[in-house]
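Batch job 17 of 40 flagged for manual review because the log was empty.
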Amino acid sequence: MSVAFDQSETRGDAELMALYARGDHSAARLLTGRHLPRVLAHAYRLLQDRAEAEDVAQEAMLKLWKIAPDWREGEARLSTWLYRVTANACTDRLRKRRTTGLEAASEQIDDTPGAVEKMIIGERQRALHLAIGSLPERQRNALTLRHFEALSNPEIAETLETSVEAVESLLGRARRTLSEKLSHLRPRKTGPQPKKGAMP
């Protein structure tokens, strides 16, 4: 038995898992096409390394195939399970990384119009990624799932196996920390400021 092409969009994850467990490899192809891109994107946002992200994504999908015979509908959503496995694998890799300084990247001077603006944007993006990477594990995972994967707070709670209130707290602390770490990127007011109490 194989999965018909015109049914690919209507078959649920649990049904495809059951089909794969019975030897239907076309079901695995459908599941891979449905979930691998988001798993890879999630891993990359956490690791900021394409090769490592690809390794983690492959590991997550291999674990999925191994548990297929035991997968039971209703216990958890497959996407939630994959996010959890991916986040855990990324955390393990981040813990193994040695503390290193920023990579020295030589950049050629570009004097074309807009080059300075592009450099500023690039610096801000790097600063944001570094700030997110420095967050505690659960804060980083909650923030990434909320703002990059667009999961709702209840979905994040399910993924992180915690309560919605805990997710709200994690997000609040993460946002405050990012605000402090990135405060130097905010435009500063120039020119003399009037002294407190001075007449205009």
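Reviewer: the log was empty due to a logging misconfiguration, but the result itself is present. The helical segments are 13-21, 25-47, 50-67, 78-96, 115-133, 137-147, 153-160, 164-181. Unflagging and moving on to job 18.
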